[in-house]
Design goal:
alpha/beta, 7-stranded parallel sheet, 6-stranded parallel sheet, 14 helices, about 40% helix
Length: about 375
């Protein structure tokens, strides 16, 4: 394989960075690229099902400013990671690097700039992340999922290319098929906590579902939770007579998409894009501590387009049961969202990526 067809994809330490990187890697392999993934120990936890890729680990750290010791130690680790990245790129020099966001992609892209290797960054949220903001000036292009993205200075607008969300091709092509035995008069709810799970969902939602059941709403719950919460959740639902299926984190949810007509989810960009492409109405509950409030911005966009509902975490007890009851009484609420979701698709995202690569290769 020639260097011309060699791509390196640097992914951050959360599923929101890792999975778009894996989707991109799969596409590039189909285009006869030799692909290598680079991440840190956190990111590697999500790559257990991707062992057919070349995966390399490099140390990473954000800048910690709590005190002089954490500032010194984190700065030293970043410098060490930069040196490791430079050596890695000298030994494995690609023709192009994709930085998928997160601080573990930062030093690879800085090293690439020092070695005059072209890099492209990708941002799928509605506000540019900190790592991408610092990398933007020296990047070749920034690929974004949404034209409404905030935080890109005007002088770099010419680098912005709107491509859509890099989600699984199988999700883009997903067509929900009714599962035998699925009751269309029942609200089948999928509860998703994101790649880092949502402990608060397991602590708060069961009693809300019980309240809905007591108001005559027929429910079945498919709930993602932490492994440590499995038994407690299962026991609660069994004792209260709520149909349920408990599962832990997985990165392919098509089986569950086929069973449900509503989702309650954190507001990571990729997850909201997957639900929209799969035409599953959802209630966004943004993570309050997400960096720069990006999950709230994501959720606000989808709500503003009538593609979803939005409830803040602090309002779950006051508002969620009322919304579910209202949906049960008026199914047109979900039908309206599905109708709007049909107008949105990321079907062109990989075609757009191919066009970007072709354009860069011709320069």
């Amino acid at each position: 394989m020639s260097k011309k067809n060699k791509a390196l994809i640097a992914v951050g330490g959360t599923g929101g960075h890792v999975f778009p990187g894996c989707n991109l890697a799969k596409h590039l392999k189909e285009r006869n690229f030799k692909v290598e993934l680079v991440t840190d120990k956190r990111g590697n936890n999500y790559l257990k099902n991707y062992q057919n890729y070349n995966i390399s680990l490099l140390p990473s750290s954000p800048i910690e400013t709590k005190n002089i010791f954490t500032l010194f130690s984190s700065s030293f680790l970043i410098f060490y990671s930069l040196l490791r990245s430079i050596i890695f790129l000298i030994l494995n020099r690609p023709s192009i690097i994709f930085g998928m966001g997160g601080y573990s992609s930062f030093t690879i892209c800085v090293a690439a700039s020092l070695l005059k290797i072209r890099y492209i960054i990708y941002e799928n949220n509605f506000i540019i992340g900190k790592a991408n903001k610092y990398l933007l000036p020296l990047s070749k292009k920034i690929l974004v999922s949404h034209k409404e993205i905030e935080g890109i200075p005007k002088k770099y607008e010419n680098k912005k290319i709107v491509i859509g969300n890099i989600i699984k091709k199988e999700i883009i092509d997903f067509s929900s098929k009714k599962i035998p035995g699925t009751d269309s008069k029942k609200i089948n709810i999928l509860v998703l906590g994101g790649s880092q799970a949502a402990q608060v969902f397991a602590e708060t939602l069961p009693n809300i579902f019980l309240e809905c059941l007591e108001q005559g709403v027929r429910l079945k719950i498919y709930q993602q939770c932490l492994p440590s919460q499995n038994e407690k959740l299962k026991k609660f639902y069994e004792q209260k007579g709520i149909e349920s299926e408990i599962f832990n984190f997985c990165d392919d949810l098509r089986e569950y998409f086929s069973k449900v007509n509503l989702a309650i989810t954190r507001s990571g960009s990729s997850m909201l894009a997957e639900l929209t492409n799969a035409k599953i109405p959802f209630i966004s509950v943004p993570l309050p501590s997400s960096a720069d409030g990006h999950q709230f911005k994501n959720a606000m966009f989808y709500q503003s387009k009538n593609l979803s509902f939005l409830i803040k975490e602090k309002d779950l007890n006051d508002k969620l049961s009322n919304l579910i009851i209202k949906i049960d009484e008026n199914n047109s609420l979900l039908e309206g969202i599905v109708k709007n979701q049909r107008q949105h698709s990321d079907k062109n995202v990989y075609k757009n990526i191919d066009q970007v690569l072709k354009s860069i290769s011709n320069e």
